[in-house]
Amino acid sequence: MQNDSVSSMSEQKPTIGHAIDTIIATLTGLPDDKSRELVLTAVQTHLGLTSIAKSDPPPDYPPAVVDKPRPGTPIIDIRSLKEEKQPATASQMACIVGYYLREIAVDPEHKDTIIAQDIDKYFKQAGFKLPKRPDQLLVDCKQSGYFDFISSGVYKLNAVGHNLVAHSLPKNKK
Question: What's the CA angle centered on 72, arms 67 and 77, to 5 degrees?
């Protein structure tokens, strides 16, 4: 069975999001931080990576930049964007996910709309607490004026949501 999953993975080009999801799922199952660090160190050594820093973009990956990134640090993943924008609420984080998908994500993750499964996936990748009902969070964000309703369960970040992420977060910026 392992050979089937390995061969099917080698036939498809993995996305960064899929790789992150797989790593997080695998490491979450380990009993403690020491075990997780041991695995990450072994992988880093196996791949010949001399150092891994949050601010270093992956090699041969086109960097995407949002408004006013940290100097010298292009934001290319949802976790970095979350850390930059510092959302205080799940609604703010949902707007960040919508913004990320439309403005920063590269194919095949790039898209103009957002659904409940995106909330689950990108909240996990960003290390943000999951809402009890991602579908209801999107409804609430629509009611707050951040998203437009497209079709059942499908929403699109509107100008109000875009401006929140691009110009109003983090709240304590100078």
Answer: 60
- The pTM score is 0.59
CATH for 155: 1.10.10
Q: Is residue 64 part of a domain?
A: no
Please check whether residues 102 and 142 belong to one and the same domain: yes
Q: Which domain holds residue 27?
A: 2-47
Whether residue 164 lies inside any domain: the answer is yes
Q: Are residues 12 and 88 in the same domain?
A: no
- Cβ 103 vs Cβ 157: under 8 Å: no
DSSP string for 32-64: SHHHHHHHHHHHHHHHT-S---TTSPPTT----
* pLDDT digits (tens), the chain, 174 positions: 445 544 444 456 677 777 777 787 787 777 777 777 777 777 777 677 766 544 444 444 444 444 444 444 466 799 999 999 999 999 999 999 999 999 998 888 999 999 999 999 999 999 999 999 999 999 999 999 999 999 999 999 999 999 999 999 998 765
